[in-house]
Specification:
- By secondary structure, this protein is mainly α.
- It is built from 7 helices and 2 strands.
- Strands 1-2 form a two-stranded parallel sheet.
Length: 115
């Protein structure tokens, strides 16, 4: 009986650990944001502002439709791209949305002074 117990306990512990790891969902929906940031440094000019706006807008819609949170920085980046195109109202709205969702994030950023 005791030898069965020694065999069963590690099996149960292993199953619990695997189940716990499998249940982790990402906290935020990142979409193409990380790739856009990487590309802007490694391949500047590859994705123009309009392309980035389209991708970020699609990412935001996908996050909202799937009930996920939009990742920090997405609305701020979107605001920058709107500003590059001279779309001030949309830029301000994006920065305000970033500030609303992540007030601690923007307290040290320049967009706080822009708004």
């Amino acid at each position: 009986m005791r030898s069965n117990f020694k065999m069963v306990v590690p099996l149960i512990v292993g199953l619990l650990l695997m189940t716990g790891c499998a249940a982790n969902k990402p906290l935020y929906h990142w979409g193409s944001y990380e790739q856009l940031i990487l590309s802007s440094y490694t391949k500047p000019g590859e994705a123009d502002a309009a392309t980035q706006i389209d991708k970020l807008t699609a990412d935001i819609q996908q996050a909202e439709s799937s009930g996920q949170k939009v990742a920090p920085g997405v609305f701020a980046h979107l605001g920058l791209k709107y500003a590059e195109q001279g779309r001030q109202l949309e830029s301000i709205n994006a920065f305000q949305q970033e500030k609303l969702l992540f007030p601690e994030h923007l307290s040290s950023m320049f967009s706080n002074t822009l708004l």
